[in-house]
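User: quick one, sequence for these tokens?
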């Protein structure tokens, strides 16, 4: 996790900063504004912003929603919404895990809220962010090999199981409630 944060995430931040320095006319505001408006970004730096900006935003969420011993399951309105969308919490976990397991190569599994406020589970390739497709990410699971190779080698399924056991559902529930209010 230290290498993941201090080396991998830090590299995305450094490369994003390098790509956008001395650029004018970029969407103003925060990283979300850049990712929401990729098509308006000059072509010469668009891929760098997509990859490194996505890398920064995705990892920022990843660190926020993980906590050893964090609240073990969703509560309140998120719990109800997950049950209504996926049937049961176990079925949601199954679908989310499977999105991560079946993503070929590098990418992320997501629980995201679409513009119609519907919960969705899917995966994206590389560092592509749900924000770039107008969705709001609530829970993101990094399935790049760099996320698990040192501890789990090729056993992505074991990493996914371990990941699900340290999700801090309080944070995910708060993101959901804020987005719905
Ligand atoms: Fe990562």
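Assistant:
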């Amino acid at each position: 996790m230290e290498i993941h944060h201090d080396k991998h995430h830090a590299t995305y931040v450094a490369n994003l900063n390098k790509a956008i320095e001395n650029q004018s006319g970029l969407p103003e505001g925060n990283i979300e504004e850049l990712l929401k408006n990729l098509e308006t970004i000059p072509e010469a730096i668009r891929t760098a912003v997509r990859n490194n900006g996505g890398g920064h935003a995705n990892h920022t969420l990843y660190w926020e929603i993980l906590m050893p011993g964090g609240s073990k399951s969703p509560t309140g309105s998120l719990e109800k919404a997950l049950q209504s969308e996926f049937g049961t919490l176990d079925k949601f976990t199954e679908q989310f895990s499977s999105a991560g397991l079946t993503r070929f190569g590098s990418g992320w599994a997501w629980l995201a809220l679409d513009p119609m406020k519907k919960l969705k589970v899917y995966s994206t390739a590389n560092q592509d962010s749900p924000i770039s497709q107008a969705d709001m990410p609530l829970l993101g699971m990094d399935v790049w090999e760099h996320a698990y190779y040192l501890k789990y080698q090729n056993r992505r399924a074991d990493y996914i199981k371990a990941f699900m056991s340290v999700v801090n559902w309080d944070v995910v529930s708060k993101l959901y409630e804020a987005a719905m209010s």
